[in-house]
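User: Continuing from earlier, I have the next pair ready.

Assistant: Great, send them over.

User: Here they are, in order.

Assistant: Folding the first of the pair now:
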Amino acid sequence: MIDALLELPTHRRERLARALASGLLVPPYEAAALSASLGQAPAIDTIAAALRRLDESGIPGPAIALALDAAARAGAKIERPALVWSGPEVPGLHARDTARVYEELLGGARRSLWISTFAYYDGPRAFATLAARMDANPELTVTLLLNIGRRPGETAAPERLVMRFAERLWRHDWPGERAPEVFYDPRSLEPSGAGGVLHAKAIVADEEVSFLTSANLTEAAFERNIELGVISRDVGLATSVVRHFQTLIERGILLALPSA
């Protein structure tokens, strides 16, 4: 019910809170009274309806004002998302670096890491930091989401391609003692052509920090390509990304890779 109020521009939300707290705005929260307090704001009728529903639930105006103020303070504490770039260093342009952010997230994770990438090359190097972090911290759980592709003209059964990918990953590409859980999208292996691929590139650390990027786990993406991402410490966003991946797994859209 309060969503319509939280979506107000900051200055209008503050005016609404003051009017509710001072008693200038009282039930039945008519549109005309709201306009007098807020000016001709868009969606006045929607705001009025939300206030009436809160009033019907037994929440008085001053309590609504307190909730709006608390939500504003909580939102102010969320660190603004920051841009993260790969590519040539240009004098006068200052931005966080993809490789550095990757290392920081992996090195700082305490409980969990979710990592999704479309491609990786040179597995021992790509996974070195992650594997070392897992071996050093037995409490850290890691979930990797990887794409398995079918090369043009390849006729092997999907099951064979999965086993071949798993064998290469565990024998040659994964450098650690502990193994992460790995999931893949089986649609990429359809004999008639990929019905879809796992193309998301993201890292979520401890369900607190999310890094959404165009960069794969490759040297080119980290050091040479022009790649762009966003790092956010919004816990709600981080949790949402993890829950989405978990749901894809629970519903069988993403399948578990055979273990080492």
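And the other member of the pair:
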Amino acid sequence: MTLFRSALVTGATGFLGSVLVEHLLAQGVEITCLVRPSAADSRKTPKGVRTIETTSFRASQLKIKLAGVSADVIFNLASYGVRPSDRDPHQLIEGNIDLLTDLLEATADWPLRRFVHTGSCSEYGFPERENVPITESQSLRPASLYGSAKASSVLFGTALASRLNIPFVTLRLFGVFGPHEAPDRLIPYLIAKLRRDEPVDLTPGEQFRDLLYEDDVAEAFIAAADAIGMKSGEAYNVCSARPTRIRDVGEAVADELGKPRHLLHWGERQYRADEPLWLVGDNRRFTATTSWSPRVTVEEGIRRMIAATPLSGKNSEHQHAF
């Protein structure tokens, strides 16, 4: 059981937010989800979860919406820019920096045990050294607008939280996968195409990524809220610390489905200009501070995804440039 009894979750109808809510419910945590009306319509929150809809995340509006509400922990998973198509500069600022700022100000008088903010490995940009896991001491040199927005949110949020005396930590996520993913992401896309015996155009597939199953990520968030030794104002890598080649991911999906590997057309797409070939994290700082460690391997995660994916599911024809 957790050491905290209540939580406010933003981004609860998204990929990771929905998984976290399920895990919190299983732990008996009282949950309040802060959502926009459109998000509330697109994916129902589970029974027993209090949902507060808001059309604005401005601090003044949030204070009204959250009147009479309090929580031991805040999990901020709301963000704009996760999808490659979401690159509007103003929305990146509003959906990352402004949203976090207003949420901190609106809950500044709550007796919080911890405020857990979601960061991203894209804040690091290209690694300083190839084939060496990235530690939290690496300089932030984001190569994308999304990475810049996330890095800015962490820097500004950390400073503001310190000023407001809010115990604030950031979890920098690397590659996350699982059944709750959007259909246009790599593994769901591969599953859908290969099940229809359709060829898949891909990059050469020589990127090495750090992939972590969704359940392990949810448990990392809970561990961060529980851990006594986590330092306020610090960022921690949440990752598997295991390099996985994208070509191996594709072949594992094909093999698990019993489909021929020649359907995987490697090299038909170009790498993105802002895409490092090596993006693997070092998780030792987080595992040393918490009781958490990753449990689900990439191979087991793929098997679970295939088992959870409907045979007749419709998938988008657009995907990340893997």
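Worth noting for the second one:
The first strand starts at residue 6 and ends at 10. The two ends are 39 Å apart (CA to CA).
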